[in-house]
Design goal:
The chain is of the alpha/beta class. It has 2 domains: 204 residues, Beta-Lactamase, CATH 3.30.450; 277 residues, P-loop containing nucleotide triphosphate hydrolases (Rossmann fold, 3-Layer(aba) Sandwich), CATH 3.40.50.300. The protein has 17 helices and 18 strands. Helix 1 packs across helix 3 and helix 3 packs across helix 4.
Length: 510
């Protein structure tokens, strides 16, 4: 690890436009820089640019549905792209296809996108994009370099407001002087938070939390040591037999990523309903999944659909599993535990560093759940982010043990905990509540449970060995294992013999 200046250069492509990124991270400076460079248009083309935009607007009709619907907005973008390239060729006949695409991309970013921020959205090295005000550059959080100051500026506060309003309309929300806070998401799945002045006293803000373009899978988590195969097999068994789980952790520790990864353990023939304040969850496409999100009231105070409304409605949709998303307030916690009491398997995330802290948060104000409700949650998992080393780990897994004394809060019994010194998961004790539930409802004994865990661990290690880490590839293996585990284990043991074809026909993701 060097203490001297570090630099890095790479290309980013957005809307057919190439941009060069140069990062300078000099410890002598207060903060590193992120320089984005796009080749400028030649003077002749620049002179035609405004005419091209005006001509384009005159020739394309945008329906309200195209402007507001996220899926139709993508079709609208393609329509703009094709028409703008054609008009560019008509107005400037000597343009090459590459030049026409360049002009088209600039127009798209200017009229339908977020301007130069579109390049930041396409940079897979970034985790966070922050517009704090028009008077200072945009900031980004880079996976390798941490916080960096860019050379990108949004020209004025009205432009920031316009970007936030565009995002809000696409998801059926609004951000106004009367409703100056926005929680929303982009079509890419990236989460957006926006605020308007004077709530944010220095100016309007937009914060974009980016999600991985290639979804994480359990194979990726094991390969990066985020989780061990032993712990993954334990959680697989728990989810297969419909154990409700709460995933906790600090900011950007990977709670939602863990929830998305563990969703691949849900049997493919089951129906999943998710209930969220803001869409963050992305489940495998082979699942029968219905995502629901709350709707805020209009400025007239009408049309609100809250989480309790969605919870009641979801129970009429015959769900096998319910995902409540992130618990921030008492309302979400109530929804979570009401869902558990209906007899469904429920999964959620919560901000808390340890499982003990998670339990205290649920029991203390402002959430203040009674002990009898807390006892219905069997299992908790916490995630940890080591910012110095840039790693994320499953930190702790524990069972919630009901108290034998009435009205006394339940206790936490840790089962696994991550050791920082060895970077390994350590088994602290044998699970009790989960094993008792399995014995009661599946008639399995201790030996059979242990054998089941070993078999699942073999499957997981085989996925790692063959580097099968696509969502569909992993899901295909789990689906076949659920139907015929003995056959899958037999095929895994036989694979590698001369002439043996790939077991599931899957190739590793690049």
């Amino acid at each position: 690890m060097t203490n001297g200046p570090r630099t890095k250069e790479y290309l980013v492509v957005a809307d057919d436009i190439e941009a060069t990124v140069r990062i300078d991270d000099d410890p002598a400076l207060l903060v590193g820089s992120y320089e984005l460079t796009v080749a400028p248009m030649d003077p002749a083309t620049t002179a035609f640019y405004d005419d091209l935009k005006a001509d384009l607007l005159g020739k394309i009709n945008i329906s309200p549905q195209e402007h507001l619907d996220m899926k139709m907005a993508e079709e609208l973008k393609q329509k703009f792209r094709e028409l703008s390239i054609r008009i560019a060729h008509e107005k400037i006949p000597h343009l090459t296809d590459r030049q026409a695409k360049f002009i088209s991309g600039i127009i798209l970013q200017d009229m339908l996108g977020l301007g130069p921020i579109e390049f930041l959205l396409r940079d897979d090295n970034l985790e966070e994009i922050c517009v704090n005000t028009s008077s200072e550059p945009v900031w980004v959080y880079h996976k390798e370099f941490g916080w960096l100051k860019t050379n990108i500026n949004v020209p004025n506060e009205a432009k920031i407001w316009n970007y936030a309003s565009t995002i809000a309309r696409r998801v059926g929300r609004q951000i106004t002087v009367h409703s100056p806070l926005l929680d929303a998401y982009l079509s890419t799945g990236d989460r957006v938070n926006a605020t308007l002045a004077p709530i944010s006293s220095t100016g309007n803000t937009i914060t974009i939390r980016k999600f991985a373009r290639k979804p994480w899978t359990i194979t990726d988590f094991i390969m990066t040591k985020t989780i061990s195969a032993e712990v993954a097999s334990f959680l697989w068994l728990a989810m297969q037999y419909e154990t409700s789980i709460l995933m906790a952790g600090g900011t950007a520790s990977g709670k939602t990523s863990l929830l998305n990864v563990l969703s691949s353990f849900i049997p493919s023939n089951q129906r999943v309903i998710s209930i969220e304040q803001t869409r963050e969850i992305t489940l495998p496409p082979y699942l029968q999944w219905v995502p629901l999100a709350v709707r805020e009231a209009t400025s007239e105070g009408q049309g609100e659909v809250n989480m309790l409304d969605l919870m009641i409605n979801s129970l009429r949709m015959r769900p096998d599993r319910i995902i409540v998303g992130e618990i921030r307030r008492a309302e979400e916690a109530q929804v979570l535990f009401e869902a558990i009491h209906t007899g469904h398997s429920v999964y959620a995330t919560l901000h808390a560093e340890t499982i003990s802290e998670a339990l205290r948060r649920l029991a203390s104000p402002p959430i203040s759940l009674p002990s009898v409700m807390l006892e219905s949650l069997p299992l908790m998992v916490t995630m940890f982010r080591d910012r110095r080393r840039g790693i994320r780990r499953v930190f702790e897994i524990g069972e919630v043990i009901p108290s034998l004394v009435d009205n006394k809060p339940p206790t936490i019994q840790p089962v696994y905990r991550w050791s920082a010194s060895t970077d390994t998961m350590v088994k602290l004790r044998k699970p009790t509540r989960l094993y008792e539930n399995l014995k009661t409802f599946t008639s399995m004994g201790d030996n059979e449970i242990e054998k089941t865990l070993e078999d699942r661990q073999k499957v997981l290690m085989w996925l790692v060995e063959k580097r099968i880490n696509s969502v569909d590839g992993v899901g295909k293996v789990f689906a076949q294992f659920a139907r015929n585990p003995d056959r899958v284990l037999e095929m895994i043991s036989q694979e590698g013999q001369v002439g043996q074809k790939p077991l599931f026909g899957d190739q590793p993701s690049q």
